[in-house]
Amino acid sequence: MASKLLVLACVRNESYGDLSPRPRYPSMPKYPKGFSASENIVKGSEAKAVFSVIGMTCAACAGSVEKAVKRLPGIREAAVDFLNNRAQVLFYPTFVNEETIRETIEDAGFEAKLIQDETSDRSTQVCRMLINGMTCTSCSNTVEQALQATQGVQKAQVALATEEVEVHYDPKVLSHNQLLQSIEDIGFEAILISTGEDIDKIHLKVDGIRNDHSIEAIENSLRALPGVQNIDIDTALNKFSISYKPEMTGPRNFIKVIQSIGAGRLKAMIFPEGSGGRESHRREEIKQYYRSFLWSLVFTIPVFLISMVFMYIPVIEHRLETKIVNMLTTGAILRWVLSTPVQFVIGRRFYTGAYKALRHHSANMDVLIALGTNAAYFYSFYSVLRAAASPDFMGTDFFETSSMLISFILLGKYLEVLAKGKTSEAIAMLMDLAPETAILLTLDDEGNVIKEEEIDGRLIQKNDVIKILPGAKVASDGFVIWGQSHVNESMITGEARPVAKRKGDPVIGGTVNENGVLHIKATKVGSESALSQIVRLVESAQMAKAPVQKFADRISKFFVPLVIIISFSTWLAWFLAGKFHVYPKSWIPNSIDSFELALQFGIAVIVIACPCALGLATPTAVMVGTGVGASQGVLIKGGQALESAHKVNCIVFDKTGTLTVGKPVVVNTKLFKNMVLGDFYELVAAAEVNSEHPLAKAIVEYAKKFREDEESPVWPEAQDFVSITGHGVKAIVRNREIIVGNRSLMLDNNIIIPVDAEEMLAETEEMAQTGILISIDREVIGLLAISDPLKPGAREVISILKSMKVRSIMVTGDNYGTANSIAREVGIETVMAETKPEQKAEKVKELQASGYVVAMVGDGINDSPALVAADVGMAIGAGTDIAIEAADIVLMKSNLEDVITAIDLSRKTFSRIRLNYIWALGYNLLGIPIAAGALFPGTGFRLPPWVAGAAMAASSVSVVMCSLLLKNYKRPKILENLEIRGIRIE
């Protein structure tokens, strides 16, 4: 699809006036005779080669090299830089190779040498790791700062919601193992998820290895294979990790080579997913919190019963109040014994977290929990010792406070981890789309199937032919080589309607084949596939912080120290007030004294404050929002794009391929003489079939409608074919002179244009259509009106945007007449026409200078400068090629409606973020004063510390649940009720 868009973007004013004149770009790909663009341009199997060209002295030399290369079949794009003596060529290896290109350059009179693409020698690598032990933004900031201080690290992003870190680093300076060690050194456990090396990497398990000699033999055999780049061996697990070039080899080749060693004793298979994966770690974390909570209940429930229930049952109370040593009772000893394992064994994780934080001069949630529970426990322990040593001490213990606090906090963390796991369900669902198995076909030289074999879906290699049965998932990205069917692509693109597929059409891995049997040729496998790219894009989006997150990060720096100060001040104020009898003794409950009352207020303050909720407010909403967007076919590249999109109040649209379909079609035919329409089009198509111009292709495609009985009609031979640049073509077909072109071509050949034809030409131009005149034997016989039709729903989308108070502007390279006509049709008032790509970017900057927050909607190719310049760049028409670096948002369905969906989803997500902050700050702003005893003087109400702990735990859970409600997002109803005019392009 991206290649199709490149072709559409390269429409030039060569033969027919100005349907869509744009600045000159590399010419359209050419194919050998017998191959159509529809069969090959969609393959996505293009390769890139860079040549050193010696002997060029000026731009004319570069131009001659470029022309020579572009004449070759299968060249997609060629760019020559004579200043640096370089030529970069994008080509289809099916038709041409590097050696042929090199020889062509030398035939043009220059010395050429194939060199390695400098971009392959990357100075930056990306590593993703799972961080175990982070509890709040203070922890994530500590990890981030430690990594950024490491030499060789260029950027580090820590996502608290996913407990992951993404590090951009220089592999020449340090390795990912050193990064893992850096995180371990600051007290957190780090698990490697992926590195940049994991692209095109397979992990194999080999059974049957007896000694080191076998391992060496396997390694040497694998290294001998073409395309193998690196091999890592884990001898303990018999695991071989192989990095390779997918266009040269693949996993089935590796398995075949391994099993051929050792007389068939060795057996290789895909390495089973280990316990180090993201999901397995998440499941293990959930289990740990669940087990800890259950064990805490085992001890806490008896403590609660002894403290709160049994004291009201006379028989049991008498036994519990039995004194053992001085004033030490049986009940106090039982509470002490039962709460100690909760405090120091089950609650050990809070001590560990607090130690790690304090060691790095920061404070987190664990510090608050450790302070609160230790204050309650050690005061109670002091009471027990004092009661045992004194015959008249009447103290009270708070063992139930510390144990119940830990139990409620563990319950809250368990619920929080459960909820956080659901925020990333979008990625899990996407990864599950890939089918587990595939049917591999073996073909003979004539293309007949000679063997079918079911294989693991991960063993598919480039150029494999795969059979897709009705109801089965498409096993790989590729194109159809046999069969017809309808494919449901909604799981990838969000497009609800099944898409018809026939020979030459592209298919996306993970989509569902609905009816017919298809044979497809795999072109992109593994990490190259659209599904893998989408997963990586969504993962990166969920890692990126939204600017609004800085608010929480700033607060977290002083939040915990401030809470500790407030807690200590609360205790001191109540203690001094009791000491100096500021309040009446009747306020003090019978079971405690003024010191203990003050202590309870101080503990309640320290445990009700929760920095976790504040840290989770933004990332959880961004995670859910980007995941929902992916399911709707709107890929949002991170929190920055999501935040900017909700502020957009001006949208700049490109015309060709954005507001219009981008493919010219014949919309009207007028004959001025009696003639059978089929015969007329046969003569016209015979003349035009030799032209590469988009308008010529539109005429030939339309002419095929009159030859429906033939799949690839053969047109009569055209003799003396001549293409007149900027005007049209001339040819002799069946001994008749055919001239097809514009008014100028007819006048240049002294052909009289009838009045009817002149009137119709004027009408077509008013309707933004291109009029093509056809002369047969020097007499104008007919006129064709060719148009690039509006996209379905374009007019309605502009109207809806206007109702959303978003201004719409069109910026295009087309002439003013065509641009104004299209703008009037869709309802856009401001038009900027005849602009070059760099001028589009300037227009965007002018609008920004005027105070607008600008979104640019373009096809992601020629509009790249404007997409980058805009506050939000939206690439429309991306299809399966979702890796458009210039865009912030990719609209995969190519529907203009999704512009509205993207803005609406952004607005809903940020409403949710604001609500999250209200939840998070509301708990603290209301809870801390209540916990400090603000209501106690007037109402006698005080918040027990264990209730404050439950409220703290609930705050994090409520924020995550609030974010999860975004999963119920529905597109605006006005889009659901929109009646879209269908346009079918033959």
TrEMBL record:
The chain crosses the membrane at residues 292-313, 333-351, 363-382, 402-419, 558-577, 597-617, 917-937, 943-966. GO terms for cellular component: membrane. It catalyses: Cu(+)(in) + ATP + H2O = Cu(+)(out) + ADP + phosphate + H(+). Keywords: ATP-binding, Copper, Copper transport, Ion transport, Membrane, Metal-binding, Nucleotide-binding, Repeat, Translocase, Transmembrane, Transmembrane helix, Transport. It comes from the Eukaryota. It is a multi-pass membrane protein. One of its GO terms (molecular function) is P-type monovalent copper transporter activity. GO terms for biological process: copper ion homeostasis. Residues 47-113, 125-191, 200-266 form the HMA domain. InterPro entries: ATPase_P-typ_cyto_dom_N, ATPase_P-typ_P_site, ATPase_P-typ_TM_dom_sf, ATPase_P-typ_transduc_dom_A_sf, ATPase_P-type_domA, HAD-like_sf, HAD_sf, Heavy-metal-associated_CS. It is an enzyme of class 7 (translocase). Its EC number is 7.2.2.8. It is found in: Membrane. Belongs to the cation transport ATPase (P-type) (TC 3.A.3) family. Type IB subfamily. This is P-type Cu(+) transporter.
